[in-house]
């Protein structure tokens, strides 16, 4: 049924009490929240993203318990995109049935004010039908849905109180204006039609300022790379708004020229906002915490016997021997690591080998050799892509052609010691035909932590 804001009688006729007790957070959900937050470079943001991730898991469990008939789609959640998660203090674009929901992890509604993300109030790409406050009791491994406010009610409130945005990209809303009977939200989600809460349309001219925004971001490179400086102290709101809206456009990848520019911007943002994997430590027989969390496995030194490499992976030994026929030689002081990656319903082996060297004029640089292989004895699927980007855009891309039954793809690239490389693997899903991609954290080279 459609519900009119003034029709309280109709609302009360269908009202049924839904339990609102605390939702227990499972160990695997806590572990997932840790992984999501560890993909963020800014240290201060990691804790907030951890709490918002727990809020997401708790809210989903709450809806499943209270209204199991409602469908939930988390695929577009901002918290699951490291670039966007780093810029929005909340969980946007969660879909429950036909509704969009924004979650905000905060404390008790006894607090005088509630902070809501500005992006979810001013940018159509992130505006929801409902803003939901979730109290995450991390120490007790619990989450409680405390209350909510509708978008139309919120905009009316902002206008009436003449509320202005804060410097940290939030709005402070009086907690007294939040509906504190969370069970009413379930009733809305069950009975209200999404069109009853009108949302603004997304403009179609988002690509016009793409080039200027990318240039502005590149000029702020050094400031944005610092893990201790809040991004709101570096970027203006206008810059952030452009970044967020263009990032949304870049998610739906196509093959046209405009999308290529969007992909370059997306790569730049990921290089700047995601923590980097330090391959320089491999030469010291070490791995940083990020590499360990991503299940990278350090291979034996290349100065050791061939039998040692064979015991690591027979496939890699064959590939290295094959590459030598193309003039690619791996020095004895190089070190490598590998991990298994899954894309769509397929599994691949990704090898990364690195070593330092002196370029012209004795300038120290580092080499990165990437090899994407199929499981031993298999060939790679047609259309599989391996690409490497830096802060300027796409550098190299390799693709499996229809008439080339490749066993592996490889890219070798050199960079300065302060340079970062972003590696992406992509493939079209056999069933859906949609492009599926995996972007790894940036690779960097530092000999010491």
From TrEMBL:
Organism encoding this protein: Floridaenema aerugineum BLCC-F46
Name of the protein: DUF1822 family protein
InterPro entries reported for this sequence: DUF1822
